[in-house]
Design brief:
Elements lengths: L1 E4 L9 E7 L14 E7 L7 E3 L3 H4 L6 E5 L7 E11 L7 E8 L9 E3 L1 H4 L4 E4 L4 E4 L1
Parallel strand pairs: 3-8, 4-7
Antiparallel strand pairs: 1-10, 2-3, 2-6, 4-8, 5-6, 6-7, 9-10
Length: about 140
């Protein structure tokens, strides 16, 4: 079980800092790039595991593994690159997970990641608004 207290922001919902980096076996590099910390929003309307801001895959030296279609509100579906990444959720007991990530288009990138419904499909999420906590079991 993982529980994290998030900052109260009525306009954004549960946003907290995560770290993203490369998975083990990072394609022959001797040293893995330093993970990047960024804010992440739990977004049940997001159909991916995680969507990362434009340019972050290049910062980590990641290579796409395939393409996938995403739908962004108010836009036509579009094909985007998919990457294998490692995410670490905050806190002392924050889990580290190897997942697939889709990179957002440049015009949708505000430096924030989105943890989508595929991230939550194998877990139970408890969103406690008054206590400002998210628990994932």
């Amino acid at each position: 079980m993982w529980q994290h207290r998030f900052a109260v922001d009525a306009n954004k919902g549960p946003v907290f800092k995560i770290r993203i980096g490369v998975q083990n076996g990072h394609r022959g590099r001797r040293v893995a790039p330093t993970p990047i910390e960024l804010p992440a929003l739990i977004d049940t309307g997001c159909n991916s595991v995680i969507q990362i801001p434009f340019g972050y895959a290049a910062k980590l030296g990641l290579l796409p593994i395939r393409k996938d279609r995403i739908k962004i509100v108010g836009q036509a579906p579009q094909e985007r690159d998919v990457y294998n990444i490692r995410i670490h959720l905050p806190g002392e007991n924050g889990p580290t997970l190897d997942v697939e990530a889709i990179e957002l288009p440049a015009d949708e990138s505000n430096g924030q990641a989105f943890l989508g419904c595929k991230f939550l499909e194998n877990a139970v999420m408890i969103y406690n608004g008054p206590a400002c906590t998210v628990t994932i079991i």
